[in-house]
Amino acid sequence: MQNKLELITGIPVPNQEISVQASEDAPESLGVLADDSKPLGYYGIRDWQVLKVDDLNPATSFTGQLHDTSQVDKFELTATEYAQRQDTVLAYKQRNKIGRFAEKPEEEPKEPETVDFPIGARCEVESTEEDFRKRGTIRFVGPTEFAKGTWVGIEYDEPIGKNDGSVKGKKYFECPPNSGVFVKPERVKVGDFPMEEINFDDEEM
To answer: For the residues 131-143, what does the mean pLDDT come to?
Structure first.
């Protein structure tokens, strides 16, 4: 019997340990068939019981060689070589635009924010200098070509600005040189801000 089992399992006869189980899923064996000279009937085997053959020395058998991968040369690729192959999961994802290769939806352009600043209104611009108020008149409100979003063009009362109402050759409003400036709406406060008079001392006349 053991010779026949060797043909089926690949386990040499001296390495075989044959046990009987009630089923394939049974946790324990019913007994061990230790004497090969006796027929199966001697052990009282019944229909649907299972013979389990364990390999006592897998290192010398064919089945052990199948499980021992220490002597097998491994097929390895560098990351660059893998990326160049066309039969990989990476290439499949690239072709079908899956995962990180999926096309990102285009962001819808944001509509310019609505700013209710009347043209000609008096205003004060936030300043980082203490007790220094930048007052002027609103001359422009809207989008520009030099930057995204809504900008407020202001003509300062004094020549403390950065332009004459134009930026990069584009004219947005009229004002004297160095009196114009463009700021974001959150820096502007609209209100009754009268023009401040500058009083010079006699030494500064």
So the answer is: 92
